[in-house]
Amino acid sequence: MERFTPDQAEELADFLTSSDWPFHSRVPDRSTVLRQVADGHWDGPSAQTFWIERRGVVRLFDLDDGSPLFDLRIAAAERGRGLGSRAVGWLTGYLFETLPANRVEATTRADNHAMRAVLAKHRYVLEARYRQTWPDRAGVLHDGVGYAVLRQDWDSGSVTPVNWEF
Ligand SMILES: CC(C)(COP(=O)(O)OP(=O)(O)OC[C@H]1O[C@@H](n2cnc3c(N)ncnc32)[C@H](O)[C@@H]1OP(=O)(O)O)[C@@H](O)C(=O)NCCC(=O)NCCS
Fold first, then answer.
1. Which of 26, 119, 137, 139 has the most CB within a 10 Å radius?
2. How many structural domains does the chain have?
3. Domain span at residue 75?
């Protein structure tokens, strides 16, 4: 993985505007991406972005609040070839090595089966389902799902189940 730097803003805008992102609520346009880079959204005090072999990008964010999150995007032509899975394995290790975080979190749309498969593979556990929270571009509200992996599970290779007893 190669760290994105703000001088690569044009390249990032090219990347984000050349694939479809069916599970994201908004289509990124060039000027928005350039403005976001200038504002520190992609690389700043609480966010870092990495290129995945120039065939994908992953933005790590909320790096300062104890439970970091990420937004992973693989170019449309490169999906289903193992890149997303490799990226989640890498970023989870990177976050636990470089931050004192006890958990890494991930949210996605409930029908994003590829993303959910990738998360389950890396010991992220389903903790929540958020009903009608995730708008698509037509305004239809889909359910979202929340996952997290615990540091202890990452270190030991185990999976701590959610305790649903109250
Ligand atoms: C979701 C995404 C990151 C997954 O990365 P990927 O490189 O396509 O996925 P991989 O090739 O690593 O596949 C990982 C697993 O998902 C499974 N998978 C892939 N596509 C799938 C699909 N459409 N339905 C069900 N499972 C799927 C694979 O079979 C694989 O499991 P396996 O190794 O047990 O066979 C990628 O498809 C993507 O960028 N999609 C668009 C952006 C997006 O939705 N990002 C998530 C935002 S929350």
1. 119
2. 1
3. 2-156
Pick the closest to residue 90 from 40, 35, 126, 50 (CA basis). 50
Give domain status of residue 165, yes or no: no
Length of the chain: 166
The helix-helix angle for 9-17 and 30-38 (nearest 10°) equals 140
SS3 at position 57: strand
- Gap between the Cα atoms of 109 and 17, Å rounded: 21
Q: Which residues lie with the beta carbon below 6 Å from any ligand 1 atom? A: 21, 23, 71-74, 79-85, 108, 112-115, 117-118
pLDDT (tens digit per residue) in 92-129:
999 999 999 999 999 999 999 999 999 999 999 999 99
- For residue 135, the number of C-alpha atoms closer than 13 Å in the C-beta half-sphere is 6
